[in-house]
Amino acid sequence: MPRRERLRVAGREPVGPYTLLRLDRGGMDPGVPGQFFMLEAPGRLLPRALSLCLAPERELAFLIDPIGPGTEALCALDAGEHIHVFGPLGNGYRLDVERPLLVGGGIGMAPLPYLSEALRFPPAVLGFRDERYAEAAALLPGAEVVVEPTFVTAAIAPGHDVLACGPEPMLHAVAALCPGAQLAWEAPMACGYGACYGCAVEIDGHMKRLCVEGPVLLAAA
Amino acid sequence: MRLLNASGCLDALVAPEVARQLDAFVTKTITPLPREGNAAPRIAEVAHGMLNSIGLANPGRERFLADNLPRLRELELPLWISVGGFCAQDYADTCAALDDVAAIELNLSCPNVDEAPESAAEIVAACRAVTPLPLYAKLSAAHPDIAAVASAVAGAGADGLSLVNTLRGLALDPRTHRPVLGRVTGGLSGPSLKPVALAAVFACYAATKLPIVGMGGIASGADVVDFVACGAKGVALGTILFSDPDAAARIRGELAQVHLDDVFALAHAADTIEVGSRVLA
């Protein structure tokens, strides 16, 4: 069951251009890999939806790309400050797969370190726009890394159960290549629990609320 | 003092524990035919508020009555059904199909879809003719004279007013300078709407004395006090539910020591408005 708590910031570390924000876990459940949490963004009206990146003992860690005022405020939090956190929310990855291959693009690699742990460190492919962003691959040791103009689809070997997260064009390309892949989608979210209908995106001809029907959805077979 | 949700700001079937904190649950607006809603992106945060352009996504009247409504009744909460449409007959047909609910809220003011050609009062009259259920007219402060609209719907048989709906606004992407939302514009809600809503409640209460459910940027007990001082008999929570699903319980706690009847009496003791901060202190 999701719950909402005010959690203490344990620390933050730069990871390439991203920030890994670590929070004391309090009484919160880390949930299933691919599920997400709504994090209060200081000074902003709406919380920000972030999937869990790592679940160190007694902590929850989130990988954040500072792309706007909300994520910038989260990346500027100092140890000892507190924010409200609500979760875990949504549907994560199904873990009953035989030959998992993790595929991540850019900040879409965020849920993969926690997923990798749950699946006992399967092979992974990560794609980034340049070498600086690729520094984030350090969070997923052993992953094959490609940098544009090479795309992750060039590195996906056949015969795997693909679990992916990344920008929409990447997910569409992975879906075309790997029917049945588990894909984590992203959309701006106000609430994270089905109240606002803001995160609905068209998938297979219907509008789906990613927060309650996703964010992980199966690519059409 | 009744505490409700603003229509479209909560799905009681997905979050029943949030709905149970309210005195009544207001549904998302029901239209005659199913609607998938507007294109993504549908929400944008702006300074002191947010824009939404959901576009009345709903399963349509037939499926709502057959599937959603029976499941909502199982929650054993008073239900307010928000009714929408694209002509007066749309509204009346849905009202005629409803019984055994606490109230009907006529959404006469969604900024994200095309408007019906008839006036608000004509739509209320068409609905009044087919249902004995309490009818609340939800109005927009975008109208230049909302008190005149309130008086007209009161004359047409409305039992109460829901004030206010969101106001049409636009947000631009700072990199592309193009609209963020898929439908270009969306409805503004949150703290920046509150003074607009207070002005509407104040004017419409003075004009009609009808029961009013006030809404627009309510996030605290102090906000509720302001709405009560202006004449609201109930309030609805909207945007605050997105960041704080437990807002209703929290606000009730903040109001525990406040005598709202005294707030209203104080505010209306003379011909001047005394907003209730003195009572809260």
Describe the structure.
The complex is a heterodimer of chains A (221) and B (281). Chain A is of the alpha/beta class. Chain A has two domains: 3-89, Translation factors (Elongation Factor Tu (Ef-tu), domain 3); 100-218, 3-Layer(aba) Sandwich (Rossmann fold), CATH 3.40.50. Chain A contains five helices and 14 strands. In chain A, the strands form three sheets. Chain A has a six-stranded antiparallel sheet, with helices on one face. Chain A has a six-stranded mixed sheet with strand order 9-8-7-10-11-14, with helices on both faces. A two-stranded antiparallel sheet of chain A has the order 12-13. In chain A, strand 12 (200-203) and strand 13 form a beta hairpin. The mean pLDDT of chain A is 95. The longest helix of chain B is centred in the C-terminal third of the chain and has 15 residues, at 194-208. Chain B has an eight-stranded parallel sheet with strand order 1-12-11-8-7-6-5-2. Chain B has a four-stranded antiparallel sheet with strand order 3-4-10-9, with no helix packed on it. In chain B, 53% of the residues are buried. Chain B has helices spanning 16-19, 61-73, 88-96, 120-128, 146-155, 194-208, 221-230, 240-243, 247-254, 260-267, 277-280; strands spanning 2-5, 25-26, 43-46, 49-52, 79-83, 103-107, 135-139, 160-163, 167-170, 185-189, 212-214, 234-237. In chain B, helix 4 (120-128) links the parallel strand 6 and strand 7. In chain B, helix 3 runs parallel beside helix 4 and helix 5 (146-155) crosses helix 6 (194-208). Chain B has 281 residues and is α/β, with parallel strands linked by helices. Chain A binds chain B through residues 4, 38, 40, 44-47, 70, 84, 86, 187-191, 193-202, 206-207, 212, and chain B through 8-11, 14-15, 18, 28, 36-37, 39-45, 48-50, 52, 54, 57, 190-191, 239, 241-246.
